[in-house]
Every structure is written in structure tokens, then in C-alpha cells.
Amino acid sequence: MEKQSIAAILSVTEIFDNLTQNQLEMVAAICEPATYNKGHVLLRENDTTDELYVIARGGVEIKMNPALVGKEDQQEMQPLVLTELRQGQVVGEVALVDQGIRSATAIVSQDNTYILRIPRKQLMLLCDTYPELGYKLMKNLAADLAFKIRNTDLTVRQYQLLLSKSKKDTEES
What we know:
The chain has 173 residues and is of the alpha+beta class. The protein has a single domain, classed as Sandwich (Jelly Rolls), CATH 2.60.120. 44% of the residues lie in helices and 24% in strands. The chain has a 4-stranded antiparallel beta sheet with strand order 1-8-3-6. The longest helix is centred in the last third of the chain and has 42 residues.
């Protein structure tokens, strides 16, 4: 795919909001595009990869395994789908910040999903070389992470409510 086409995809992605055309083209130059089918694992919970993925077309489910928290009776639990991300959204952005382990698994949810992979090292080099680009990217990244944290908090509260209701119903039986 041409650099200009990739730049157009990036331009509608929130973490690349307010970048100039030149800045978008610089980021586009380091993107590694690929198409995946449903079921392909982009990243696994607890792995130590450091790429950012931009969903250009299709979808990606974000799953978390509650059994990793540790109780033996949870070992049989299935991973929970936290959300499904779509075109213009990103996966793997936390690793840009802390290079820590992956907090969830990302699995392609639709055939013919088009993904732009952006290696952290190359993106950070761009940010260091062009501080204005780096500032805009980090500001947008912080806003994206804050939004996702709020949504995750809401999901956790919904699960807590369901669990407490289920526990109350069980006690009443």
C-alpha cells in the first residue's frame, strides 16, 4: 500500500489526530501493513512485545483471562471479551508507554482485517527526532488511554454488580 494511503488511514486514527500531512507520512513510512483473518492472535496477555497496531479495516477483540488472577477455582474460567475495537482504533498502545507485559490478548474478530503494525523503537525515534510530532502523539495517546481506563472501570463495575446480584440470589435460594 502506498505511503499516502497509509497516511490517510492514520489521519482518521485518534492517536494521530492533529498531525500534519508531513508528520503522518513519516509515521506511514514506518508502518508494516498486513491482512489477517478471524482468529489470528495479534498479541497475547503476559507477552512482552512492544508494537502498536492500528486497525485500518475489520475488528479486533480484546480478551482478558480472569484465571490469571490466581484462585484455583477460576482455572476453568474462559477469557472475558472486554471490547471489540474497530477501524481507526489502536491496540498495544500501553506498551509504547511502559514496555511492560501485555495486559490482554488481542484476537482478530473478522476475516480480511487490515492492520498497520508500528514498531515502538522506530516510532520513538521519530518522536525524539521530531519533538512536535512526539508531543502531539503522546498527548493523544494519554487521551486514548484515559478513555479506555474509564471504559474498563465501567466494565468492572458492571461485573461486580452482576456478581453481587448473583451472590444475593444464591443466598436467597
